[in-house]
């Protein structure tokens, strides 16, 4: 039962870490359409902003000036939290691989392997919390930005939505958290 739980947690952690990595690298955290005719579709990400023309499907992307340039707080904080979450999830995966019962590394000492699984669960939990904070921080800031436009009557047909990258970050963080719970609480 323990080996099955370890492998299930590893599979979930691997998939969720890939989701986190994909969310960090992609460029559709916030979606807006600037007009009611939906001639263009704009995605803003952590690294660049892309506009897709809905009539002919042409997509153009603009990179942000520099990683060291002044950026809005939501971009800087989300970048930092997501990169840290990715690093912690990667470290947890490496530790978990070494701690799996089916791996012959330290096969003669199962107590150490179990401690490695617990440690991987704790590291994965920390990474998942950072990733969830980063994703939710960005989503809340998008909501507040839209609410400010509406409250100041500057709405003018601009429609903000959470992009698929934001949802992917939340899903990856949640999956890492579930894998962490499996490794730290359910593994006996």
From TrEMBL:
Kindly state which keywords UniProt assigns to this record, in alphabetical order: Cell junction, Cell membrane, Membrane, Signal, Tight junction, Transmembrane, Transmembrane helix
Q: From which residue to which does the signal peptide run?
A: 1-28
**Pfam families for this protein:** PMP22_Claudin
Q: What Gene Ontology cellular-component terms does the record carry?
A: bicellular tight junction; plasma membrane
What is the membrane topology listed in the Swiss-Prot or TrEMBL record? Multi-pass membrane protein
Q: What sections of the protein cross the membrane? A: 118-140, 162-187
Sorted alphabetically, which PROSITE patterns does this protein's record hold? Answer: CLAUDIN (PS01346)
Q: Which InterPro entries does the entry mention? A: Claudin, Claudin16, Claudin_CS, PMP22/EMP/MP20/Claudin
Gene3D superfamilies in the cross-refs? 1.20.140.150
Quote one Gene Ontology molecular function term. structural molecule activity
Q: What is its main location?
A: other
Q: Where in the cell is it found?
A: Cell junction, Tight junction; Cell membrane
Function in brief: Claudins function as major constituents of the tight junction complexes that regulate the permeability of epithelia.
Family statement: Belongs to the claudin family.
Q: Which PANTHER family match?
A: CLAUDIN
Q: What is this protein called?
A: Claudin
Q: Name the species this protein comes from.
A: Rhagologus leucostigma
- Gene name? Cldn16_0
